[in-house]
């Protein structure tokens, strides 16, 4: 019976290509180019960019606010929600949890046709949810979101 060493080869012995000398040579798109980022990363960045000015503007009133992103809304809407696909959902604060806004990435991306339109729509949806939380009109929360 043949005994073999089953320990993985060290970094110098590991093959980087297949036996014909082919294989992955590097990234298909280099990191500095825009195509390197995924749609999820682009959406998360748009949410962060839209949230930061609101947190600065309303400081203490939104200090415990949590903003989250989910891909799609749950299939069972709440009884008070319309039958259409929601773009976001607000969970008010209770004794155990701070207030939370959840933005749904796929429905928002579906309704926008360009990166600029995505940023505007994220700002508008976030302003509507913060307005509901603070009992304000969305236009008062983020006046610049409706100027386009």
Estimate the mean pLDDT confidence: 83
Physical arrangement of strands within the biggest beta sheet = 1-3-2
SSE series: HEEEHHH
Principal-axes shape call: elongated
Largest sheet: 3 strands, mixed
Strand content: 5-15%
Oligomeric description of these chains: single chain
Structural class: alpha+beta
Mind telling me the CATH class of the domain at 38-74 and 84-146? Alpha Beta
Provide the gyration radius in Å.
Answer: 23 Å
How many helix segments? 4
CATH architecture of the domain at 38-74 and 84-146: 2-Layer Sandwich
Q: Which fold name fills CATH's third level, the topology of the domain at 38-74 and 84-146?
A: Zincin-like
Secondary structure tally: strands: 3
| Proportion of helical residues | 25-40%
Model regions low in confidence, pLDDT < 50 over at least 5 residues:
1-8
For the termini, the CA-CA separation is: 76 Å
Summarize this entry quickly:
The chain has 148 residues and is α+β, with helices and mostly antiparallel strands. Helices cover 34% and strands 9% of the residues.
List the helices and strands and how they pair.
Blueprint: H1 39-58, E1 66-70, E2 88-91, E3 100-104, H2 105-111, H3 115-134, H4 138-141
Parallel strand pairs: 1-3
Antiparallel strand pairs: 2-3
Helix pairs in contact: 1-3
Pick out its properties.
single chain, 148 residues, alpha+beta, Zincin-like, three-stranded mixed sheet, 4 helices, 34% helix, 9% strand, disordered N terminus
